[in-house]
TrEMBL record:
Sequence segments annotated as region (Disordered): 1-21
Gene3D superfamilies cross-referenced by the UniProt entry: Alanine racemase, Lyase, Ornithine Decarboxylase, Chain A, domain 1
Catalytic activity field: L-alanine = D-alanine
SMART domains associated with the record: Ala_racemase_C
Record protein name field: Alanine racemase
Binding site for substrate: 151, 327
Matches recorded under InterPro entries: Ala_racemase, Ala_racemase/Decarboxylase_C, Ala_racemase_C, Ala_racemase_N, PLP-binding_barrel
Molecular function GO labels: alanine racemase activity
Residues annotated with N6-(pyridoxal phosphate)lysine modification: 53
Function as written in the Swiss-Prot or TrEMBL entry: Catalyzes the interconversion of L-alanine and D-alanine. May also act on other amino acids.
Keywords linked to the UniProt accession: Isomerase, Pyridoxal phosphate
Gene from which the chain derives: alr
UniProt keyword Isomerase, yes or no: yes
Pathway(s) where this gene product acts: Amino-acid biosynthesis; D-alanine biosynthesis; D-alanine from L-alanine: step 1/1
């Protein structure tokens, strides 16, 4: 991805040019699955803002963005304005909203790139107003209220003041408040009363904005789970991220996972019972078995916490990962049957050929798919299929 400013240095510098060749683990991104998920979600939502934060949940933000825009999404959502600038650098012209920035973020660059900004406080509003005055560009804002998570968005006690300040800036022509947004804390549990309380608070917040003279045309509250399970939360727009890449935190529909991670067998050996495998000798063989070495580990995003539970698919069979997951390598036991160097193991995929899924890995590690997918390493060789 192109860095928007010359002095921006990514924390993990990539190679100057992509390293060609199939050797090593491969991560295949199935944009057809993203397209199918987008159609399903766009069908459920009034309008769809596709959330492509954290590099499109690890799937490649620009690739996911182009796919979802072709399938019915009308806008993109990101966390940092830097992520928004990267989308612009990739040539994406659709509306982009960025909702989490410190007050000293480069709002000038954001306005020059026509990014919309969420505003959670008076301090943020002042910084954006200053940038609007500097650039001569009217800022398109979404006022952001907390409706019961005590996380992001304005505290309810500060909301009226924020709305009135925004209305004054709107009358001066510096900003246009196009939206009011909030986020649900318990939507993954359909029927949770926490969502009823958030809905009440959100409606009241919109009322306060109108009373201050604002006319926000985009009221948005729902993310993936609420879009799938609770039409009361839909308002004018849904901000959907996880669902696009095949994660349904509400557990109510079948979406298509879009990633397949494979790794070649580097070496094989046959060992008797009583052999200790890997760091700390965490595993000791109980019988004669064949072991294979795969060249990926927690440095590539495989959670070390999946030790003792994880499996891969090799030669059509599920085989356990044995011993500790190392930074760069794992050992898999194939039992009586030897594998051969050059065979390919499926670490996870959509699950339709017997391979584990990312959801399986997340469960083995005691986490959620979101964390697994956004933590996949840059070292993996990525290929994109349409
Ligand atoms: C991440 C995020 C979303 C998307 O949530 P999903 O559950 O992944 O669809 C929506 N809104 C906000 C504010 C977010 O941070």
């Amino acid at each position: 991805m192109t860095a928007p400013t010359a002095r921006t240095v990514s924390p993990v510098p990539g190679p100057a040019a992509p390293v060609p060749g199939p050797a090593g683990p491969r991560l295949r991104i199935d944009l057809g699955a993203v397209a199918a998920n987008t159609r399903l979600l766009a069908d459920r939502a009034v309008a769809l803002m596709a959330v492509v934060k954290a590099d499109g949940f690890g799937h490649g933000a620009a690739d996911v963005a182009r796919t979802v825009l072709a399938e019915g999404a009308t806008a993109l959502g990101v966390t940092t304005l830097h992520e928004g600038l990267e989308l612009r650098a990739a040539g994406i012209a659709a509306p982009v909203l960025s909702w989490l920035n410190p007050v000293d973020a480069d709002f000038t660059a954001a306005l020059r790139a026509r990014l919309q900004l969420a505003v959670p406080s008076r301090e943020h509003l002042d910084a954006v107003i200053a940038a609007a005055a500097r650039t001569g560009r009217r800022a398109q804002l979404h006022l952001h209220i907390d409706t019961g998570m005590a996380r992001d968005g304005a505290a309810p006690a500060r909301w009226q003041e924020l709305c009135r300040s925004a209305a004054r800036a709107e009358r001066r022509g510096l900003v246009e408040v196009v939206g009011v947004m909030s986020h649900l804390g318990c939507a993954d549990t359909p029927g949770d009363p926490c969502t009823d309380a958030a809905l009440t608070a959100f409606r009241a917040a919109v009322g306060t904005a109108r009373a201050a003279g604002l006319r926000p045309r985009l009221r948005h509250l729902a993310a993936t789970s609420a879009t799938l399970t609770d039409p009361r939360t839909h308002f004018d727009l849904s901000r959907v991220g996880a669902g696009l890449v095949g994660i349904d935190p509400s557990g109510t529909v079948r979406l298509r996972p879009a990633l397949t991670l494979t790794a070649p067998v580097v070496s094989v050996r046959e060992v008797p019972a009583g052999v200790h495998v890997g760091y700390g000798h965490a595993c000791t063989t109980t019988r004669r078995t064949h072991l294979v070495l795969l060249p990926l580990g927690y440095g590539d995003g495989l959670p070390r916490a999946a030790n003792g539970r994880a499996e891969v698919l090799l030669q059509g069979r599920r085989c356990p990962v044995v011993g500790r997951i190392s930074m760069d390598q794992i050992v898999v036991s194939t039992g009586d049957r030897p594998a051969a160097p050059g065979d390919t193991a499926v670490v996870f995929g959509p699950g339709d050929r017997g391979e584990p899924t990312a959801a399986d890995w997340a469960r083995w590690a005691g986490t959620i798919e979101h964390e697994l997918l956004t933590g996949l390493g840059r070292r993996l060789h990525r290929t994109v299929s349409p």
